[in-house]
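Escalation from tier 1.

The customer reports that the assembly of two entities below gives different structure tokens on two consecutive runs. Tier 1 could not reproduce it. I'm attaching the input and our single run for tier 2 to review.
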Amino acid sequence: MRRKLTVFAVIVVCYLLQTTLFQRLAFASIAPNLLIIVASAFGFMRGRKEGLFTGFFCGLILDIFSGSAPGIYALLYMYAGYINGFFRKRFYPEDIKLPLLLIAGSDLAVNLFIYFFMFLFRNRYNLNYYFLHLMLPELVYTMVVTIFLYVIVLKINQRLEAVEKRSAGKFV
Amino acid sequence: MKRKSKFVLPARYILMIMTGICIAGMLLGFTLNISGGPLNAVAGYIFIPMQRGINTVGTFLTGKAESLKNLADVMVENEQLRQQVDALTTELNTIKLEQYELDNLRELLELDQKYPSYEKVAANVIGRNGGNWFSSFTIDKGSEDGIEADMNVIAGSGLVGIVTDVGPNYARVSTIINDMNKVSGMVTSTSDNLVVSGSLENMNENMVIDFSDLSDGDDEVRVGDTVVTSYISDRYQQGILIGYVASLKMDSNNLTKSGTITPAVDFEHIEEVLVILNKKQTAED
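Tier 1 run:
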């Protein structure tokens, strides 16, 4: 319960920052994608199932407030969280290279799918342009933010795991 | 005897179930044109007060920082401005004459009477969403203030977009520069109809949006002509300023023209908008 509430709070805070603060700090009207950081971080830190649910709720909030097609973001972010879950065994908290790589991959993949489903189908063929002017800047900006946000999310998770271990120990 | 104390569903089955839920949501959203329903209300009560708060703090802080920084500059500026006042007074007299001329022209266009007669409600932009792909934002007024879906949103004198979704205390506005939006417009000089469609690529590159299907047989439409919303639109009120023709060229079919329009609204810096409470009357109503 404590974990669920904490994760929910993290998602809420990231969504709020993404839509308010980072819109003011946007470079060339490109804002970083904080929610994909949260979704994939909980995927590779906690495994497939938790990544799946975290991603689903991240996407659901985007769906509710951005609403092009309800469910599409939930679906994409859910798969991002789930697939990141496969890398749990290779994940070590001290090493920041793998998280950076995974988050970068997730961000790019989600954007490519959005392009594919919502732009290509409407005869917007200029992938080159969208890649250079939207996906790449977002990727770079998201990576910069990841370096800070990932550490915070990691600390929150370690704190939670420590608390869970303690309370589990009491009953044994 | 071995007994399972708790049945745990494997992750891949959960994934399948949730995928089904998402796809069902998408299909429902497309066919019935609903989104969220009660979820919208719940989410509205959780997020909107916080977004509003952050936004107020943000505006307050930028305001304070700027006022401190500017105090010294203001003294110098004051001197310069005094000199400018004299120069401008002279200019004003000239402009008054032009204003008189403009009023006459407006009367001719009959825009003047239509515009202010709409009932409007002012709202603040409290969050931009849709990621970097789509241009839409949330405003801090909702169904409690009389806002409904499909109401037109303007800022200053130009069209901003349309309300796509309403919660009790918020509404979502999809802008006309949004890549998925289309508005039917009209060139005021020739009364020719055209279709204005938002374009992410052109907006980012040249600050313009696309138009197409302009049938201008007499070759009369010029760059700089005013484009307003058309009377044939079933969602947009007639005669709201969209922008000015920035470029146009003949299509390959030699019948219609397409080109670009510079929007009348500065979409980068929208903070306050007006929602027109009158909805377009259609045959069904």
